[in-house]
Write a structure and sequence with these properties.
Blueprint: H1 9-20, E1 29-32, E2 41-49, H2 60-69, E3 74-79, E4 84-88, E5 92-94
Antiparallel strand pairs: 1-2, 1-5, 2-3, 3-4
């Protein structure tokens, strides 16, 4: 799919709605699927760019898709109630997507 423009706006809007439910955004309850904190469940308190991710070689469409999904190239801070930790957003799953 091409970058967001007037011809592709409807397709991108449908994609944004679909990906919005699974995006690990602030306030959503998530479960860690891989890594040191696997099986931990908590609330996302921060969601942002991973400063070590390489965003330089993406096409416009790839960049927009990664922004919508909020996974590859992103990190999240999770608060379990007893501890807070950071993990890659690719390693979490939204517990109850709506």
């Amino acid at each position: 799919m091409a970058a967001i423009n007037s011809d592709t706006l409807d397709a991108w809007q449908k994609l944004a709605i679909t990906l919005g439910t699974t995006r690990p955004s602030i306030g959503k309850r998530v479960m860690v699927k891989r890594g040191k904190h696997a099986a931990e469940v908590g609330i996302v308190t921060w969601h942002g760019h991973n400063k070590f991710a390489d965003w330089n070689h993406l096409t416009d469409a790839q960049y927009h898709l990664r922004e919508l999904a909020g996974r590859w190239g992103y990190r999240v801070q999770i608060d379990t109630g007893t501890e807070k930790f950071f993990v890659d957003a690719d390693n979490v799953e939204v517990a109850n997507p709506q």
